[in-house]
């Protein structure tokens, strides 16, 4: 059975219908979908799959496999195959295998080194050896973070709950009650525990930093990256990364149009009377309920952030011209603690000191 240490899963076999959907304009890198009603047909092949292989499989190191399929537009796809299960749910952290393929009608064929995978709309995935023998099947799943919908604890400040932008500067609410990118907190905080939920648009033609980009700028200095890096390696400038400084321990990015969570514990750097830094900031980050950074000392500002200093600046939700949406944002202010401690009760993690 799939290990569910941090994230929950539900089978997608009957969740999405096979009705006709809009087709993406070919090659348009700015094509961005924020509503499931407007996705193209490739969207229904993208996602996460899990299953087991038969006992006659000599190739696999373990019987369980996880698969992440990424749409690249016009029926083209890439994918990552994982031994043991999905990232955060059983993957044994061995090297992932990269696959690619195209969709012909209702079947997407992905080619790997030793295996051929045939993906059907919303699953299943049939796994074949080089002779075409069926080795097993994978089922499509929709994972959700264990911190999704987390209730603000006593003493927390609600930054955004869909009702107003009173705690934000330049905040704008969509007709559906979601927060648009490109805003900042009205008040400043030195040290804190922060909860943010975000949803990435579906942008199959976009690549790299153009693919559903935003960011959470702590103190307007340190960026925790927001990006559609689902199914990719997970490097310093991808989702979960401290921008260009530290890659996440594991790539826990979910597929676009899924609600995702960041839970961030941040302790501000310390400066002496002359403004010289005497202690780095440090941070713990949970992406979709899984620790991707723990007690990491941030050595300098990241990317386009403000230079480090004792002055406080607000938390920003970056506008990178992609329609990323946010909801359920709250913060626990720890600024009055001389040696701040933060913990995430749902995670059996020790409080950070």
UniProtKB/TrEMBL annotation:
Q: Which organism is it from?
A: Gimesia chilikensis
Keyword match Transit peptide: no
**Residue ranges occupied by any 3-keto-alpha-glucoside-1,2-lyase/3-keto-2-hydroxy-glucal hydratase domain in the UniProt entry:** 156-331
User: Which InterPro entries does the record cross-reference, listed alphabetically?
Assistant: AL/BT2_dom
According to the record, the signal peptide region is 1-22
Q: State whether keyword Signal applies.
A: yes
The protein's name is: 3-keto-alpha-glucoside-1,2-lyase/3-keto-2-hydroxy-glucal hydratase domain-containing protein
What Pfam families does the record tag this protein with?
Answer: 3keto-disac_hyd
> Per its record, what are the GO molecular function terms?
hydrolase activity
Keyword set for this entry?
A: Signal
């Amino acid at each position: 059975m799939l290990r569910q240490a941090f994230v929950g899963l539900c089978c997608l076999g009957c969740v999405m219908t096979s009705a006709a959907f809009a087709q993406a304009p070919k090659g348009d890198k700015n094509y961005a979908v924020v509503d499931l009603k407007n996705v193209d047909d490739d969207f229904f092949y993208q996602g996460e799959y899990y299953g087991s292989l038969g006992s006659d499989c000599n190739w696999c190191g373990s019987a369980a496999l996880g698969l992440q399929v990424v749409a690249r537009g016009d029926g083209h796809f890439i994918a990552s195959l994982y031994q043991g299960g999905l990232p955060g749910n059983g993957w044994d952290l061995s090297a992932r295998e990269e696959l690619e393929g195209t969709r012909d009608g209702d079947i997407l064929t992905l080619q790997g080194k030793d295996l051929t995978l045939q993906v059907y709309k919303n699953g299943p995935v049939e796994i074949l050896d080089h002779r075409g023998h069926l080795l097993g099947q994978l089922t499509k799943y929709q994972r959700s973070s264990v911190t999704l919908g987390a209730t603000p604890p006593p003493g927390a400040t609600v930054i955004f709950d869909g009702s107003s932008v009173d705690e934000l500067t330049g905040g704008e609410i969509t007709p559906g009650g979601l927060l648009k990118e490109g805003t900042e907190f009205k008040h400043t905080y030195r040290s804190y525990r922060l909860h943010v939920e975000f949803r990435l648009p579906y942008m199959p033609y976009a690549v790299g930093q153009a693919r559903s980009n935003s960011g959470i700028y702590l103190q307007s200095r340190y960026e925790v990256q927001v990006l559609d890096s689902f199914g990719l390696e997970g490097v310093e400038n991808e989702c979960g990364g401290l921008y260009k400084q530290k890659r996440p321990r594991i790539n826990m990015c979910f597929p676009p149009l899924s609600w995702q969570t960041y839970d961030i514990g941040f302790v501000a750097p310390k400066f002496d009377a002359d403004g010289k830094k005497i202690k780095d900031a440090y941070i713990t980050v949970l992406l979709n309920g899984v620790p991707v950074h723990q007690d990491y000392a941030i050595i300098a500002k990241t990317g386009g952030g403000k230079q480090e200093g004792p002055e406080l600046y607000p938390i920003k939700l970056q506008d990178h011209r992609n329609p990323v949406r946010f909801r359920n944002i709250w913060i626990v202010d720890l600024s009055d603690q001389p040696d701040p401690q933060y913990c995430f009760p749902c995670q059996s993690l020790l409080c950070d000191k």
